[in-house]
Design a protein that fits this description.
The chain has 109 residues and is α/β, with parallel strands linked by helices. The protein has one domain: 3-Layer(aba) Sandwich (Rossmann fold), CATH 3.40.50.40. 39% of the residues lie in helices and 11% in strands. The chain has 4 helices and 3 strands; from the N terminus they run βαβαβαα. The protein has a 3-stranded parallel beta sheet with strand order 1-2-3, with helices on both faces. The model has no long low-confidence stretch (mean pLDDT 78).
Length: 109
């Protein structure tokens, strides 16, 4: 996966905690997201509409704790649509990865 034409990526997960679905697919998707997160911001959101993306439920291949420990940002309690809008706004403003991280940190508690 290349990020040359990609400003950022929002992953709207299938579970409330922020874990990916399907064991095989989640391992492949998680590896791709981790690789992409080295060159572009990747944000993990829950698509339940409410609730916080967890940060330490377990440490499996598609777990949120593994993704977050490798540079993927958490949308916190922001639903996917709102997290995508925030990501797009920050990218259009030319914000750095550190600034993106700080902005999403506001939605963690």
């Amino acid at each position: 996966m290349r990020a040359s034409n990609l400003g950022g990526l929002l992953i709207d997960t299938g579970f409330a905690a922020g874990n990916l679905l399907d064991v095989t697919a989640m391992a492949l998707a998680a590896d791709a997201m981790i690789e992409l997160a080295t060159s572009a911001p990747v944000v993990l959101a829950s698509r339940t509409g409410s609730g916080l993306v967890e940060d330490c439920t377990y440490s499996g291949a598609g777990s949120e704790s593994r993704l977050l420990s490798h540079g993927v940002l958490s949308a916190g309690w922001l639903p996917g649509v709102e997290a995508r809008l925030l990501l797009e706004l920050l990218l259009r403003q030319g914000r750095s990865h550190a600034e993106l991280s700080d902005s999403f940190e506001e939605f963690q508690h």
